[in-house]
Amino acid sequence: MPSMPIMPMNPTPGSPGKSQWTRNLERNPGHSQWYIERWERMRAEGKDIDGEARLIDALAPRGAFVLDAGSGTGRVGAELARRGHDVVGIDLDPTLVAYAERTSPGPRWITGDLAEACAILGEGSLGTFDVVVAAGNVVTFVAENDRRRVLENFARLLRPGGRLVAGFGTGRGYSLESYVADAAAAGFEVPQVFSTWDLRPASDDPGFVVVISVKGEGKAAKATPA
Fold this sequence. Notes:
Elements: H1 20-27, H2 31-44, H3 51-59, E1 65-69, H4 75-82, E2 86-91, H5 94-103, E3 108-111, H6 117-121, E4 129-134, H7 138-141, H8 147-157, E5 158-169, H9 176-186, E6 192-194, E7 208-214
Parallel strand pairs: 1-2, 1-4, 2-3, 4-5
Antiparallel strand pairs: 5-7, 6-7
Helix pairs in contact: 3-4, 8-9
């Protein structure tokens, strides 16, 4: 079965300028450790947790330059590195980044906000990534005010023709229609939409989607002021 992370904590209303992950940590300071232990337990039980990495590996060229956006424990990025890709992971949570560094030392793991990804990675990284993957509901955790800016950053970091692959639950406060509109404004073409990481067709009213968006040739999104 494809791996589709489902967080048991449903999003709750809050400041549009504050990420859902930050609100989770404010409610429960032990949330990061719980999250780490959850994935460790799933792996120990032999559950398939590499569906996202398999799809990215199939889509990307050999030895692709991949941004694991909202990399968390490093689960996806580490598997992609094992498959021969050059991976950079960015996550807001220093506890998760430290765990990724300790357990998966191959990729480059960075603590930072995706809204500042271009500044964090530097001008030399613009237009260099083959794929950006945002697994595990990452786009729904982004602060509402930062959503379009984050997608613009992804577009600026990708080479022309590069792919953004995002998987998220559509009932988590960011509808598929809103996401597609924001991605189009950021410079992405009309996407392909699936219901699982093994590319099963999406229904008319999907509860979970995997959206594959291609950066338009010659298009470069302009940065949205902070």
